[in-house]
Design brief:
mainly alpha, three-stranded antiparallel beta sheet, 3 strands, 43% helix, DUF501, DUF501 domain-containing protein
């Protein structure tokens, strides 16, 4: 088993993620990547939600700037382009298969859920279905783990090295005397 690459979540983190998503954050168990300012960029979610629903997306992109930039890539046909790359490059297929296996190992180290035992996110390992999931995995696991997440991040107008957090996140006071995330 592996140890998933994320830090523990605080109540303040959950408050920030709730504001980022515009809805209550559900079953967040860690922050897998952070903005340079410290705000969550990728959350890790339980493989089985509190209501019993299987949830295959372990790494969920929550940063508004990152989400918008990746949405732009999806809207401009990048998934079709990457699917073509996947079909023509044995090296990328091999790397994408390894990314799929790494994702499964991370999730399994938290909890085994029969219904999603061989399912990852983003279409891995056979297709490119969701660049948000692939970019989230790439940010969480680091460069070189998910080739299509890396490609999407390299092409996006957003960078994990530059804070673009909305002003409303700065107004979120920590809970219970905790330091800001």
């Amino acid at each position: 088993m592996t140890t998933p690459p994320f830090a523990p979540v605080s109540e303040h983190d959950v408050l920030i993620v709730t504001k980022q998503l515009g809805r209550p954050a559900r079953d967040v168990i860690g922050i897998a990547a952070r903005c340079v300012c410290g705000n969550p960029t990728v959350v890790s979610t339980k493989p089985r939600l509190g209501d019993g629903t299987p949830f295959p997306t372990l790494y969920y992109l929550c940063h508004p700037g990152a989400t918008a930039a990746i949405s732009t890539l999806e809207a401009t046909g990048v998934m079709a382009e990457y699917t073509e790359l996947l079909s023509t490059s044995p090296e990328l297929r091999e790397q994408y298969q390894a990314a799929h296996e790494a994702y499964l190992a991370d999730r399994e180290s938290i909890e085994h859920v029969d219904e999603i035992a061989h399912v990852t996110a983003g279409g891995m390992p056979e297709r490119i279905k969701c660049l948000h999931a692939l970019a989230g995995h790439a940010l969480a696991a680091g460069p070189g783990v998910n080739p299509f997440g890396d490609l999407a991040l390299a092409r996006a107008t957003w960078s994990p090295d530059v804070c673009t957090c909305p002003d409303y996140l700065a107004d979120t006071a920590p809970l219970d005397g905790q330091a800001p995330a």
